[in-house]
Amino acid sequence: MEYIANTLSNLWQQTAFTTMTPGNYAMICVAFLFLYLAIRWDFEPLLLVPISFGMLLVNIYPDIMLSIEDSSNGVGGLLYYFYMLDKWAILPSLIFMGVGAMTDFGPLIANPSSFLMGAAAQFGIFAAYFLAIAMGFNGQQAASISIIGGADGPTSIFLATKLNQTSILGPIAVAAYSYMSLVPIIQPPVMKLLTTKKERVIKMQQLRPVSKLEKILFPIVVTVVVCMILPTTAPLIGMLMLGNLFRESGVVRQLQETASNAMMYIVVILLGTSVGATTSAQAFLNITTIKIVILGLIAFVVGTAGGVLLGKVMCLVTHGKVNPLIGSAGVSAVPMAARVSQKVGAEYDPTNFLLMHAMGPNVAGVVGTAVVAGTFMAVFGVF
Q: Are the CB atoms for 156 and 286 separated by under 8 Å?
């Protein structure tokens, strides 16, 4: 009987119930909520499913993120090795390559003024940066948090790891990806508040055709110009433009298909689960997380407003040829933000097709957010 009792006791001690805290149970409930939103309501399921599952795993079995240094046998946990690919900036850069391979920069090339709206949407990042400083965060923490305003998860992860802010990486990544998925909910009220009905029904002229030569030269020229000015942007801008060159050159179709499909989805699995695994109860359930979520929301709203307001200025300058709604697409959430511009415009005129016009500021926002991240790295002397 004593043997049976000891065996049962040992088995009980091996279960997660003996080590889990109320915080772990709370985070498991958050993971269930994210899974529900992703599966039932289709909120960015490709991102939220792996993130929430990583969150679930680390709060049941914390050693799945055990580092090599803390391990008794010199072997880290499974998701720790996934996470190191984030820390080394490998996965965010590969995500950018996949995005580039899927993105048509034609609308931006056809209408270069879209760059201005993409740039204006970055004002939210700087607003959140100074607000974070005022709330007591140091410069590098403030920069890592404020980049959430670009609604660009990979860039948020990239900058946080480069600035060595891994202690707040989990809240930053979850906030960034959450706001990406909530673009259709957050943006429309801001867009409607800042525009008139007359502005919302403006029909823009069809974009000019873009030649194949222009599409091939664009990624090469952007890489040279941007990386010469800000070399720290090379990992993100370089991979984004390389992926786009795969697409537009037409001679490496296999590479383009691999980068935009198989590789992209593999990287999303690794990135999502490792990001979710950084949200242990100890790291996530604190006042800092609440501040990060609030600052991220402020950055995103101000960024959306900045793009729309510049759209209004361009509408005024061009005597009504620019629909201000497309300015909201200046955040980096591709192509969700452009679709929201189309949807809001169609509510007031179903025959108004703004999608391709909105794609210009949208892809400009991707470049803009990467440039802002590189600027922060240069300011803090990180390479």
A: no
271 Cβ neighbours under 8 A, 6+ residues apart? 50, 82, 85, 86, 91, 92, 95, 154, 157
Angle at 309 between CA 303 and CA 311, to 5 degrees: 105
Question: What's phi and psi for 319, nearest 5 deg?
Answer: 60, 50
Please give the DSSP secondary-structure letter assigned to residue 236. I
Spatial distance between the Cα atoms of 12 and 39, rounded to a whole number of angstroms: 33
Measured in Å, how far apart are the chain's first and last C-alpha atoms? 64
Positive or negative, the CA dihedral 260, 261, 263, 269 is: positive
Q: What is the mean pLDDT of residues 112-138?
A: 94
How far are the Cα atoms of 13, 303, 341 from residue 307, in angstroms, in the given order? 56, 6, 11
CB within 8 A of 362, min separation 6: which ones?
Answer: 118, 329, 330, 331, 332, 333, 334, 335, 337, 338
Stated as kind and residue range, the H or E segment containing 127 is helix 123-134
What letter represents residue 290's amino acid?
I
Question: In whole angstroms, how far apart are CA 160 and each of 51, 116, 173, 177, 279?
Answer: 17, 26, 9, 14, 15
Q: Which of 379, 356, 295 is nearest to 114 (CA)?
A: 356
| Per-residue pLDDT reduced to its tens digit, 272-299 | 999 899 999 988 889 999 999 999 999 9
Percent of the chain residues topping a pLDDT of 90: 80
C-alpha 300, offset from chain centre: 11
How far is residue 209's CA from residue 231's CA, in Å, rounded to a whole number?
A: 32
Q: How many CB atoms lie within 10 A of CB 209?
A: 8
d(CA 77, CA 72): 12
